[in-house]
């Protein structure tokens, strides 16, 4: 196998998925260039069909693909045969003799085993169960809602330039309703929670059987087992008849048994069917009819039917749907695990890690195996956490020590009490979290460092208890083998012994320390000898019984954060708002992102110091060219200045044991330790002085737009800022002169602090509640948090009565209802106390939650959502009135479940991530075609590894849709974006901020295809989600409102655009370029409405911003001036017509003032960041082509002496671009708009320009799709250039420089 044979399949897979609406693969008549083959499949009673396979596939891969086809389901236990020879499942198709394009493969029915027969029953049961969003809700998972949204509209039709006009007529029949009142700007009421999730129950799904269960005669007696009977199945058909079915190696057949008599002999004239549904169709005509209906139902996308690797918790759910879809799994015994022996998760993981990686195909198989093992381990950890806390598992540690459990091969441990020296229970929780974080760091190491292993690790927060889930480490739990030395080889207690295994381990640790920027150092061992270390003092290295090297207890791998470390003698240094300050636990460590950023910062400082020292020694050029030691001396001085470990090269490493209590360093390490203390204090100051202001600046300029607490945490972590800095973040914002522009960040920071403090109290609160009162206690806690002055007395005795009814006969303790004593005032007091101790918030929280609502605009429903997601509480989908103090807002029956929250490591897909990063770099360089191919390749690799159900795959596909749209392929962008929305809903959450953004992007692509009604529904849903998650006072609300203003018409359009302008001015500033765009959009819509005076006022504001940003002679300012002049002229004409008696009022507006559909799409793309990157290389190439074309046109015009050529030259002088002449003929024909649109679309599809943005900036006529006057062209370019420059300035430095250069050159061209 060659890598190139696999890499070429990225494009094919993307096009197959995106262009086949029914999920059926297209096939050709010959082998494709990417190694794919069209083959014919027949046999086993299946209608023949064609299948597209890849040459590098194993036969087993082809079999799995065949089993997933609708024509084959629910058949299992089949093989493929070629020319009568059954193929080896582990062979590659391209290695099979005689395998070629168009070959016919036959399905061969394989004999069943008892396990395979049970798997077949599970497949039948799965097929008969109609899949819907409610299934995910019942299991506590986030559902996919997009399909239920699109079911209310007509089936979408992909648009082309030829049928756009026809489809626009059919679209009118499926027009979206006007926006609901609760999403209008300034609405006082929040959207109902019932609008967040689908309430449509699929009751129309037909029933197939009345009952399908194990027979009362099961299991077969011994003499029947000897004759091949596996099990007996009882069947009750819709016709009311009872049958008994035997499962055997050949399949299934009817026997003669009844409820009263056992007779296993086959019934007369009954066939033996390999597939159970064939036998059921032979028995029951009604089943056969309903099964045919099931097979012809519309198929769901693969992204919606495949199971996600990890469960995404949904905080809302639906309670009673069990009677609606009968499941036969429990009655068939399918819920019983046939694996009596629990899996060895560590062995499974390490076996997957040891798979070969020589070729791309081998790496993909390894990555997929790692993901599957880690996913299965996380699911097992979740199940083990529930069983442990539910009391189904006994502790294996006895009465002494912390309780530990072993369930399903997962080693679960929880701390009864933490180390008081480090901070008690909070320190133990922090150690568990840091252990998981550092296991992720070591797992990400590649190359030879993959020989340094870590055991599977996850954390489960369930019912207030944090359980650490790990696989069993060999060498500790396993028996020692004489031929393989096992035991402790590295660590503080390892001793000074030397052997080859220890030397090998030390070599691996040295390499890992270099990769993680850790310093090799020595400490004084327990016996007084010097002990060399490459890690923290707690880490232990062992050689397991399996011969692998393992590293354990790595929770202190990262260096200490000195901002929260008060040394002896520094007590007086701790003042209000200053650092260092005390923290509730002593395990405050720097994040890996911060260490990396700090090293980059020090390297930049090192480069500056080197240049400065060279300048002092005679100049930079002289030092570089001279052969003396001045340049070396400059490097040495710079290394000393920045604290480099080496004095000849820049080398920055950290000692993780500095500032660790109980660690003694030898005297020879004193200088190095002092240097490390200085570096760590600089790193801590780097957070305060650099990273925090950088984060605030990104939030102001729109680079980071957190919408909820999860996105705020992610944005802070990407900057290397720990959440213990939330209090400092709030104080920094309050002291900033841009406090008002960062009010949404302040709001989220307060919400995160309240939720984290409340969760800490909830953990101890819920542990003391017996199982029968859990739902009542959880609802009581939420009411105390969200309803001011709430108490059990204010709610009457209803909650106590319900808890007593639940606990009756349960033998509970007398104080089983002590949780009812908690009141809202007491809980808020505890939260304020914890916030002051942890985040130094002495003021700001007020006396209750209403203070945050009134002072900072925090929504109670948003706080409820955050609390549920944090604790795993799932609530019933209904409306909650959280301001009613006389009645409990949340009842015990509203708490549907408490789910375990699992934190786990993520398995990286190195090849896909590398290709995705390369595509992003290509975009920054302007290589659009190359980026497009790289994105398709990355999407293909993600699909091979994780079936696209991964956050990184979602990002990759979203960027692929953007690039496809920019290239002029809206149909492909729409198809890919539909998948992106479903993936985001299922993997991140139905109301995750990324899902909101993806809905808005989908609306743009849908509108480009003429699906206006569906685009409006997507924007409605995005607005509903944002209002629920955060509220209307958010920067992204301006984007959604502006998009709605462009899509809607009339008064509602003006209403949304005015709201967007107000919000954008508030968050981005009155002089921001995006604000100028908002003014221009509103000026356009006001002109359409006939308010020319208002349009002039807004265009004047836009012109003022452009003039202040660029100057009077800049093309941007000139374009705004031209559009302003057009408005003024039209206003004068209207005024004159009024004075003359209104004789001309009925005339249509000049088309230069009416935005076309394509102009609207371009403006939408700019608003949503689709057109935001300056593709410099392609732009320069395109300019050269334009210059050559312009020179050729001028030479041709010089030869023409007629009047027509003269008029064309005159018109050309008024244009701002050279290509306007080629479009002027169509532009003058007002009736031929479709021809004009077709020319523009064909121009984009032919790839003559890198992006739409390039064509709009370089060629003004294509920008004006109306094609009537140069004034309309200048109007459109006004919008495009302004926001493109604004976005590129906030994106990359190189892009900013290219934009400035391009604009100056453009000005020369226009002149």
TrEMBL record:
<feature type="region of interest" description="Disordered">
    <location>
        <begin position="150"/>
        <end position="182"/>
    </location>
</feature>
<feature type="region of interest" description="Disordered">
    <location>
        <begin position="1"/>
        <end position="37"/>
    </location>
</feature>
<dbReference type="GO" id="GO:0005737">
    <property type="term" value="C:cytoplasm"/>
</dbReference>
<dbReference type="InterPro" id="IPR023231">
    <property type="entry name" value="GSKIP_dom_sf"/>
</dbReference>
<keyword id="KW-0963">Cytoplasm</keyword>
<feature type="compositionally biased region" description="Basic and acidic residues">
    <location>
        <begin position="1298"/>
        <end position="1311"/>
    </location>
</feature>
<dbReference type="InterPro" id="IPR011990">
    <property type="entry name" value="TPR-like_helical_dom_sf"/>
</dbReference>
<dbReference type="Pfam" id="PF13374">
    <property type="entry name" value="TPR_10"/>
</dbReference>
<feature type="region of interest" description="Disordered">
    <location>
        <begin position="1193"/>
        <end position="1311"/>
    </location>
</feature>
<feature type="compositionally biased region" description="Polar residues">
    <location>
        <begin position="1261"/>
        <end position="1281"/>
    </location>
</feature>
<dbReference type="GO" id="GO:0048312">
    <property type="term" value="P:intracellular distribution of mitochondria"/>
</dbReference>
<feature type="compositionally biased region" description="Polar residues">
    <location>
        <begin position="150"/>
        <end position="161"/>
    </location>
</feature>
<feature type="region of interest" description="Disordered">
    <location>
        <begin position="793"/>
        <end position="817"/>
    </location>
</feature>
<feature type="domain" description="Clu">
    <location>
        <begin position="322"/>
        <end position="565"/>
    </location>
</feature>
<dbReference type="Pfam" id="PF12807">
    <property type="entry name" value="eIF3_p135"/>
</dbReference>
<dbReference type="Pfam" id="PF13236">
    <property type="entry name" value="CLU"/>
</dbReference>
<feature type="compositionally biased region" description="Basic and acidic residues">
    <location>
        <begin position="1"/>
        <end position="15"/>
    </location>
</feature>
<dbReference type="InterPro" id="IPR033646">
    <property type="entry name" value="CLU-central"/>
</dbReference>
<dbReference type="InterPro" id="IPR025697">
    <property type="entry name" value="CLU_dom"/>
</dbReference>
<dbReference type="GO" id="GO:0003729">
    <property type="term" value="F:mRNA binding"/>
</dbReference>
<dbReference type="InterPro" id="IPR027523">
    <property type="entry name" value="CLU_prot"/>
</dbReference>
<protein>
    <submittedName>
        <fullName>Clustered mitochondria protein homolog isoform X2</fullName>
    </submittedName>
</protein>
<feature type="compositionally biased region" description="Polar residues">
    <location>
        <begin position="17"/>
        <end position="26"/>
    </location>
</feature>
